[in-house]
Amino acid sequence: MSHQDRSYEVVIVGAGAAGLSAAVMLGRSKRRVLVISLRNRRNSPADRVNNVPFAHGTAPADVYAKMESDATAYGVGFVWDAALTARATEGGVSVTTRDSGTFHGERLVLATGPRDELPAWIPEEEWGRSVFDCPYCHTREHDGAAFVAVGAGTETLQHALLCRQYASSLTALVSDADSARGDLAVRLLKAGAQVHADTVVSATTRDGGGLLLVTAAGRELSAGAVVLDTAIQKPNTLLPSALGLELNPHGFPRTTLFGRTSHPRVYNTGKSNPSSPYFAWTGAAASGLNAARAVCEDIAFG
Ligand SMILES: Cc1cc2nc3c(=O)[nH]c(=O)nc-3n(C[C@H](O)[C@H](O)[C@H](O)COP(=O)(O)OP(=O)(O)OC[C@H]3O[C@@H](n4cnc5c(N)ncnc54)[C@H](O)[C@@H]3O)c2cc1C
């Protein structure tokens, strides 16, 4: 199969954890597969991946290079380009890219991940280094640092409690004043943390690492690690809206556990609501495998 081919059994958009997991499984299943993607994955700013079996501590770029090489070995083609729009009819799907033209398939797997909408105060180089939205993936690497959890309310206080064992000092800044007086706040105060109804307005990188945060109430806080809430993760709506997919109340495509969407030829992977079973990198990979399985079964069973 030449990568110049324009027609495939499965077109996957997105070469992250979900898309590459699906690509390897579909390639091994002897399906003609094309992956269209940009190179920037959600965790690309981080130095290493954690909590990913067999890849713990590896640089994200090395994990993706290995997965791409596995997929290529099974005949999967790659086009490194932006998918601008997509179409799905009863007869098939097509994806139009910015610079490489239009590709056709019998089925389409969307694996474009969420879109991170970051607060403007985060210095660009600090996202994925001292600022995260997960209390599990990189907090251990900041053991002994001053932790600040920033966000709206309940989830921020939960993140603060989950970081407590690493923190030399712990502060939660919540924009919702009621949350700052609620049960979780009391629990944090009893644990020696500070809780304020306040929000960050600016941040600068400190010499030696971490951030100096300035808040709306005029506080100045030194932070070795800042944990945001997951509300920064927004649905990537470009292709779902072009395809007219039904959305769930969170704005992500409505899917079954196996990624089937409202269009019988289109599958969607990844986290799609706050209580999704697809948690973090390995969860995204699992959802890619589930979608690949649905594709295989739909092709085989009709
Ligand atoms: C800073 C940071 C660090 C993290 N560290 C960890 C960790 O250590 N361990 C862990 O378990 N989880 C970690 N995570 C979470 C993990 O990265 C995500 O859960 C996982 O990457 C989601 O995988 P995905 O395949 O759904 O999306 P992604 O990995 O984001 O992949 C989506 C792909 O689609 C591409 N794409 C999107 N739109 C288009 C388009 N229109 N055209 C072409 N391509 C497109 C993107 O460029 C990307 O290549 C981290 C997250 C962040 C933000």
Keywords:
24% helix; FAD/NAD(P)-binding domain; binds flavin-adenine dinucleotide; five-stranded parallel beta sheet; single chain; alpha/beta; 302 residues; 6 helices
Question: How does this model look, in words?
Answer:
Helix content is 24%, strand content 26%. The chain has 302 residues and is of the alpha/beta class. The strands form four sheets. Strands 1, 2, 3, 4, 5, 6 and 17 form a seven-stranded mixed beta sheet that branches. Strands 8-15-9-10-11 form a five-stranded parallel beta sheet, covered by helices on one side. Strand 5 and strand 6 form a beta hairpin. The longest helix is centred in the C-terminal third of the chain and has 22 residues, at 280-301. The radius of gyration is 21 Å and the shape is elongated. The protein binds flavin-adenine dinucleotide (FAD). Flavin-adenine dinucleotide is lined by residues 13-19, 36-38, 40-43, 45-46, 49-52, 82-83, 111-113, 116, 128, 132, 137, 236, 238, 270, 280-282, 284.
